[in-house]
C-alpha cells in the first residue's frame, strides 16, 4: 500500500498560513507597517485604493534590506528577530514570526523595492502567488517600498468574503490608528484614493491623539502615570462626561504592542465606577511597560493577544492608575442619571393642546383601527375595575417615589368616571390601567420605541420621512470612519427626515431633523450614529432596520418623564395599533398584566 502522507508545497503552505495572518486588507496593512517600525523607520506612508482590495502600498525610510535579505524575507519563518527559543521571551519588536511577507505574497501580486543606506542600488522583486517573477537591481530611495495588488486574486472564495469598501476601510483605519498611537515618535501619512486622510508629524502622545480623533479631545484628556517594580503605566484617560455608547476608542498597549484583553479593559472600567452612565464607555490610551519575561506574546498569529504571568497584579495597578488620574484631575462629574441625555423635548412641559399635535405626529394621524379594535377586547368588562384606579380621583404626587394613596382614591372615586380617564403614571416610568382580568402595566419608553420603530421603518420603505427645518443649521465634525459610514447610508438617513450636506472634510451641515422630534440637531444626529454602531457591533441587522431601531431608541420618551393623561392615552392607543404591541424592537416585553386573582391572593380571599 503506497504512503499517503506528504509535505505540502510551499505555495499551498503559505496560503494556509495566510488564512490566519492575512484575514483582510487591514491585516496586511498591520503586518507591513509593523515591519517598517521594526526597521527603524521615522516616516511611514500608507497608500490605499479600493479599500485595500486593489492596492496597499507602504513606503518607509527604514534600514532597508540587502539583495539576499530581500529574497529571504519571502520565505516562511524567515526572521531577523529570533535566533533561539529563549528569544521569544525577550522580544522588543513588533513582528517576529517570519510569516507576514511570505503569507501576503502567497495571496497577492507583491512588488518589493528596498535599499540599504550604504549601497548605491537597491533590489526589485516581483512575486505573484509565492512565485518570484522578477528580481533585478533598481534605483530606489533608502528604506523599503512594498506594494500589494489584487489581494486574494488567486483565492476567489476568500475575496468574496470581504465586506463592502466602507467596512474594510474602517478596519484599515482602526489598524492605522493603533499603530500611529503606539509610536507618536514616528511620522505617519495615509492616502486613500489620492486623498490625504491623515498627515501626522512626530509629536507627543496627546498631540497625536488630537490629530487622530479631533480637536474636541483637547479638553477631554487626563494624564495617567503609575510605576511599580512590576509595571509602568502611562497614557491618557477621558473625562466621564465624554464617554460614548460604543467601545471604539479604547486602546491598551503592552510594550508598544496593541492588545485586546477584556480583563484589563474591565480594570479601566471599574476605575470609573459611579462616574459613567449605563452602557457608556470612556476613551483611554494606556501604555503598559513590563519586562518581556513576564509576558507571552506568542499566543495568536495576529499578536493581539498576550498572557501575563501575574495578571491580577497588572489589573490592580491599571485600576489604581486610572482611578488616581480621575481623582487628581477632579473629573468626577455631577450626573443626573434620570435626565434625558439626548435632550429630547420633554412632553410633560407642553400643554395638552400642544401635546395633541405632537402625539398625532408621533403615533400617526390614522391609527390602524382594525388592529386596535382587536386589542380593545382586552379591556372588556373593565368598568368596575377601573373605578379604583381612576386618575381623575387619584392624582399622583410630584415626588416620583411617592406611593399611591389607595385610601384617598377610594374615598374620592366617582362611579360615572369615563373609561378613557382610567390611566395613571407610576413613578414617571409606567402607565397603569385596569383591564378585564387585572392591571396592565406598560413601560412607557419601550412602548414608545415600538411606535417610533414602526413609523421609521415605514418611512424608510417608502422614502417618505418628513422634516422640520432648523432655524440655525449646525455643523458636525465626524471621524473618518463615521463620515464614511454616514455617506454610505446617506439615502436611508435622509429618508428618516434628516436634512444634511457635506460641509468640508469629514464635516456635515445639519439643517433639518425628523418632523416629530425636537432637541439639539447635532446631538440627535450623533446619538443616531452612536446607537447605529452599537447595534452593528452586537447584532447583524439590515441597514434600514438598524437605523429604525437606533432612532427609536434615542428619540423615545424616557423613564422619568412625566406625561399628562391625554399623552398616556395616546401612547397606549399607539402601542396597540402597532405591528407588534407585545414587544419592543429589541424583543423586550412592553407590558405585563397583574392578574386580579394574584391581587386577591394578597388579601387571603
Give a written overview of the molecule.
By secondary structure, the protein is of the alpha+beta class. The chain has 4 domains: 10-202, Heat Shock Protein 90; 213-328, Ribosomal Protein S5, domain 2 (2-Layer Sandwich); 347-446 and 560-601, 2-Layer Sandwich (formyl-coa transferase, domain 3), CATH 3.30.1540.20; 465-555, Ribosomal Protein S8, Chain: A, domain 1, CATH 3.30.1370.100. Helices cover 35% and strands 22% of the residues. It has 20 helices and 22 strands. The strands form 5 sheets. It has an 8-stranded mixed sheet. The protein is elongated.
- The level of helicity is 25-40%
The N- to C-terminal Cα distance equals: 86 Å
Question: How much is the radius of gyration in Å?
Answer: 30 Å
Query: In this structure, how is the largest beta sheet organized?
Result: 8 strands, mixed
How many separate helices?
A: 20
- Annotated CATH homologous superfamily of the largest domain: Histidine kinase-like ATPase, C-terminal domain
Regions with little confidence, pLDDT below 50 for 5+ residues: 333-359, 361-367, 381-421
CATH fold name of the largest domain: Heat Shock Protein 90
List keywords for this structure.
Ribosomal Protein S5, domain 2; 605 residues; 22 strands; 4 domains; formyl-coa transferase, domain 3; 20 helices; elongated; Heat Shock Protein 90; five-stranded mixed sheet; 35% helix; alpha+beta
Amino acid at each position: 500500500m503506497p504512503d499517503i502522507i506528504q509535505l505540502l508545497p510551499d505555495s499551498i503552505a503559505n496560503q494556509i498560513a495566510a488564512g490566519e495572518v492575512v484575514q483582510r486588507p487591514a491585516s496586511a496593512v498591520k503586518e507591513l507597517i509593523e515591519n517598517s517600525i521594526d526597521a527603524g523607520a521615522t516616516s511611514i506612508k500608507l497608500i490605499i485604493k479600493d479599500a485595500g482590495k486593489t492596492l496597499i502600498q507602504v513606503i518607509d525610510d527604514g534600514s532597508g534590506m540587502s539583495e539576499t535579505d530581500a529574497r529571504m524575507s519571502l520565505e516562511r519563518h524567515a526572521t531577523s528577530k529570533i535566533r533561539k527559543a529563549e528569544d521569544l521571551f525577550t522580544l522588543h519588536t513588533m513582528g517576529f514570526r517570519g510569516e507576514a511577507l511570505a503569507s501576503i505574497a502567497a495571496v497577492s501580486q507583491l512588488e518589493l523595492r528596498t535599499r540599504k543606506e550604504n549601497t548605491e542600488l537597491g533590489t526589485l522583486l516581483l512575486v505573484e502567488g509565492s512565485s518570484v517573477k522578477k528580481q533585478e537591481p533598481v534605483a530606489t530611495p533608502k528604506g523599503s517600498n512594498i506594494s500589494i495588488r489584487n489581494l486574494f486574486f488567486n483565492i476567489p472564495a476568500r475575496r468574496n468574503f470581504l465586506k463592502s469598501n466602507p467596512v474594510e476601510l474602517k478596519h484599515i483605519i482602526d489598524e492605522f490608528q493603533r499603530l500611529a498611537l503606539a509610536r507618536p515618535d514616528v511620522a505617519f501619512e495615509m492616502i486613500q484614493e489620492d486623498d490625504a486622510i491623515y498627515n501626522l508629524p512626530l509629536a507627543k502622545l496627546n498631540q497625536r491623539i488630537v490629530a487622530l480623533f479631533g480637536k474636541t479631545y483637547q479638553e477631554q484628556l487626563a494624564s495617567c502615570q503609575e510605576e511599580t517594580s512590576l509595571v509602568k503605566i502611562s497614557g491618557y484617560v477621558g473625562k466621564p462626561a465624554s464617554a460614548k455608547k460604543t467601545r471604539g476608542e479604547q486602546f491598551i498597549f503592552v510594550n508598544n504592542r496593541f492588545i485586546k484583553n477584556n480583563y484589563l479593559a474591565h480594570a479601566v472600567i471599574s476605575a470609573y465606577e459611579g462616574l459613567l452612565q449605563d452602557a457608556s464607555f470612556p476613551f483611554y490610551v494606556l501604555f503598559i511597560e513590563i519586562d518581556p519575561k513576564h509576558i507571552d506574546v506568542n499566543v495568536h498569529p495576529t499578536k493581539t493577544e498576550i498572557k501575563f504571568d501575574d495578571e491580577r497584579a497588572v489589573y490592580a495597578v491599571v485600576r489604581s492608575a486610572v482611578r488616581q488620574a480621575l481623582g487628581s484631575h477632579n473629573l468626577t462629574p455631577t450626573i443626573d442619571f434620570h435626565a434625558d441625555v439626548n435632550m429630547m423635548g420633554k412632553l410633560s412641559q407642553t400643554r395638552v393642546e400642544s401635546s395633541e399635535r405632537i402625539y398625532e405626529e408621533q403615533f400617526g394621524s390614522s391609527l390602524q383601527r382594525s388592529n386596535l379594535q382587536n386589542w380593545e377586547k382586552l379591556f372588556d368588562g373593565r368598568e368596575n375595575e377601573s373605578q379604583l384606579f381612576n386618575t381623575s380621583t387619584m392624582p399622583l404626587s410630584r415626588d416620583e417615589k411617592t406611593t399611591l394613596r389607595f385610601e384617598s382614591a377610594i374615598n374620592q372615586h366617582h362611579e360615572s368616571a369615563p373609561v378613557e380617564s382610567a390611566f395613571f403614571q407610576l413613578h414617571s416610568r409606567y402607565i397603569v390601567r385596569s383591564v378585564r382580568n387585572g392591571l396592565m402595566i406598560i413601560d412607557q419608553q419601550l412602548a414608545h420605541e415600538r411606535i417610533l420603530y414602526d413609523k421609521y421603518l415605514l418611512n424608510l420603505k417608502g422614502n417618505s420621512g418628513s422634516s422640520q427645518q432648523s432655524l440655525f443649521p449646525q455643523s458636525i465634525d465626524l471621524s473618518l470612519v463615521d463620515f464614511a459610514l454616514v455617506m454610505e447610508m446617506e439615502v436611508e438617513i435622509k429618508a428618516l427626515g434628516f436634512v444634511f450636506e457635506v460641509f468640508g472634510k469629514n464635516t456635515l451641515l445639519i439643517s433639518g431633523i425628523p418632523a416629530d422630534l425636537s432637541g439639539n440637531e447635532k446631538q440627535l444626529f450623533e446619538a443616531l450614529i452612536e446607537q447605529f454602531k452599537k447595534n452593528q457591533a452586537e447584532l447583524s441587522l439590515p441597514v434600514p432596520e438598524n437605523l429604525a431601531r437606533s432612532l427609536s431608541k434615542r428619540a423615545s420618551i424616557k423613564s422619568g418623564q412625566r406625561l399628562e393623561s391625554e399623552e398616556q392615552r395616546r401612547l397606549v392607543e399607539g402601542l396597540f395599533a402597532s405591528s407588534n404591541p407585545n414587544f419592543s424592537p429589541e424583543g423586550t416585553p412592553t407590558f405585563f398584566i397583574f392578574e386580579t386573582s394574584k391581587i386577591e391572593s394578597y388579601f387571603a380571599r
